[in-house]
Amino acid sequence: MSAARRRAAPPPGSGARGGNGPAAGGPAADAPPFPQAAGPPFLQMGGLRAGYGPARVLHGIDLAVREGEMVAVLGPNGAGKTTLLRALSGMVRGRGSARLRGTEILGRAPEEIARLGVAHVPEGRGTFAPLTVEENLRIGAHLLPRSHVAGQLRRVLSRFPVLQAHLSQPAGSLSGGEQQMLAVGRALMSRPRLLLLDEPSRGLAPLTTRRLFDVLRAVNLHEGVTMIVVEQNAQLALEFAGRALVMESGRLVLAGEAGRLRPGRRVTSAYLGPRR
Amino acid sequence: MNIAEQTGRRRLAVGREAGDRRRVWPWPRVTLAALAAVACAAPFLLTPYRVFQLTMILVYGIALLGLNLVVGQSGQISLGHGAFLAVGAYTSAVATGPLGLPYPVVLPLSALLSFGLGLALGLPALRLRGAYLAVVTLAIAVVVPPVIKRFGAVTGGSMGLSASVPSAPPWSGLADDQWLYLLVLAVAAAALAAARNLLASRSGRALAAIRENPAAAEVLGVRIAAHRTLVFAWSAMYAGVAGTLYAWVVGFVSPDSFTVTLSIVLLAAAVVGGPDSPAGPLLGAVFLTFVPAAAQGAGDAAPGLVAGLVIVIVVCAAPAGLAGLLRMAAGAVARRLGRE
């Protein structure tokens, strides 16, 4: 309803994509909002739809993500942010198309998508509570050749020194912040090329959240890992991400460079509702 | 957000939760060495009947060790391990009897056979989710005794088949029952070591991950069906080996030894012993060997009744099984001694 109207009239300079709905055949019809490298984009979604049984949640997402980008996805509850990540990691069946370096990932099993270099830090972390921190991390390296596991473990622990002290403790005994670090660390153990993060800040103290985002930024910059971060904390997301998307009712309603979106009121109104 | 997250730290009561692997007992090596010494000395100190009972405990222990891989590690239910026992037992009886193979060859043969059978069954059953494995294995457990009876030419039908019992080599100076006990003990030790190895490996961790959170494991690249199928095949192999040893110890196999009840009692013993503990199979096997026999005195229906009652009590009072109780006791002792 209002989402459609908003899409029809993007504010100048915001870079919102004027996609023509789920039926859009070729995402190439849209002009990319900002310059892109030549060749196929790292991740290209076209008319991506998904849902749970009869309930449709995503109504056609067209989006291109460049390699090494950090994209924040904002929006109110129920906008389909989590479903977007789930569709990309194969946890929910998606329709339309989503190509990672030209390879179609929709319709593949989650473990196959993981093999293509996609790691998903799910909502609620999903750490394996009775297993130790080290075991959790080693499971993250399930796809790595055995000879690379030790080195990768050292690398991840150097990013999250707090985990080092708790290596032999069951993951369930960690604090919320530490568990989130563990979940992210576990995902990084697989050396992903694309990291999907679902509300990493949920339930964390502001300081812990900031520390976590500092690590994410470092990984993004130094290792060139592309990230899509679903975040409720719009302020934080806009500060760290290069680009932000706003979703509403299963559609992208706004997209733009984070720096440009920050002063605008549009993000906050879409995210917090019209009262603000 | 749960309480653990609000308060930051929580300390689980030891043994309450399956999969808790914290060390509670401060002297594991000493205890293990003492147990091994007792196990090796036992046949020379006990009467032949007691030695026979101990041997049976070890045989069931091996089967339960395998069943625990499915129940405790994979988090699935098999109602058909009695059938794999039957496969192992009949392989041994037929191979050493009519075929005249020497018995050292029979053990790997029946291991291979039951592994293959487990793989063949697990492949379709484990691709489907939910209770399919339980249903398929139950069907196998039901089908096996009639099939054995049907092919009487090979299996001896409902009359059963006597199996040749390995006799002690003259150089050892041991009685047959002592020799057999030590043989079974060696196999049990090897089986335990192999199971521990499996669980400490990448595949063991993957299994634990699948059990705790299949969705999270899958997005990390773990192939759920493949791991579950493989561990089911391993588990079937353990049961097959136990079946072969059973034939050696008892010296006689018949379809009535491997009914559905055996499969169900095995599962019950695994749960009572503690499905996710190294001590669980042994405790479960002790339960399996003594409780039904002791209850038999009270009447024909008593074994089932008592076993059922014990299961209900254990599941309600000690979800981690007898091994869990042992862990809690060990934790209490260690705390009192101030060593934890």
TrEMBL record, chain B:
<protein>
    <submittedName>
        <fullName>Branched-chain amino acid transport system permease protein</fullName>
    </submittedName>
</protein>
<dbReference type="InterPro" id="IPR001851">
    <property type="entry name" value="ABC_transp_permease"/>
</dbReference>
<feature type="transmembrane region" description="Helical">
    <location>
        <begin position="30"/>
        <end position="46"/>
    </location>
</feature>
<keyword id="KW-1003">Cell membrane</keyword>
<feature type="transmembrane region" description="Helical">
    <location>
        <begin position="230"/>
        <end position="251"/>
    </location>
</feature>
<feature type="transmembrane region" description="Helical">
    <location>
        <begin position="78"/>
        <end position="99"/>
    </location>
</feature>
<feature type="transmembrane region" description="Helical">
    <location>
        <begin position="105"/>
        <end position="123"/>
    </location>
</feature>
<dbReference type="Pfam" id="PF02653">
    <property type="entry name" value="BPD_transp_2"/>
</dbReference>
<dbReference type="GO" id="GO:0015658">
    <property type="term" value="F:branched-chain amino acid transmembrane transporter activity"/>
</dbReference>
<feature type="transmembrane region" description="Helical">
    <location>
        <begin position="179"/>
        <end position="199"/>
    </location>
</feature>
<feature type="transmembrane region" description="Helical">
    <location>
        <begin position="130"/>
        <end position="148"/>
    </location>
</feature>
<keyword id="KW-0812">Transmembrane</keyword>
<keyword id="KW-0472">Membrane</keyword>
<dbReference type="InterPro" id="IPR043428">
    <property type="entry name" value="LivM-like"/>
</dbReference>
<dbReference type="GO" id="GO:0005886">
    <property type="term" value="C:plasma membrane"/>
</dbReference>
<feature type="transmembrane region" description="Helical">
    <location>
        <begin position="282"/>
        <end position="299"/>
    </location>
</feature>
<feature type="transmembrane region" description="Helical">
    <location>
        <begin position="305"/>
        <end position="326"/>
    </location>
</feature>
<feature type="transmembrane region" description="Helical">
    <location>
        <begin position="52"/>
        <end position="71"/>
    </location>
</feature>
<keyword id="KW-1133">Transmembrane helix</keyword>
<feature type="transmembrane region" description="Helical">
    <location>
        <begin position="257"/>
        <end position="275"/>
    </location>
</feature>
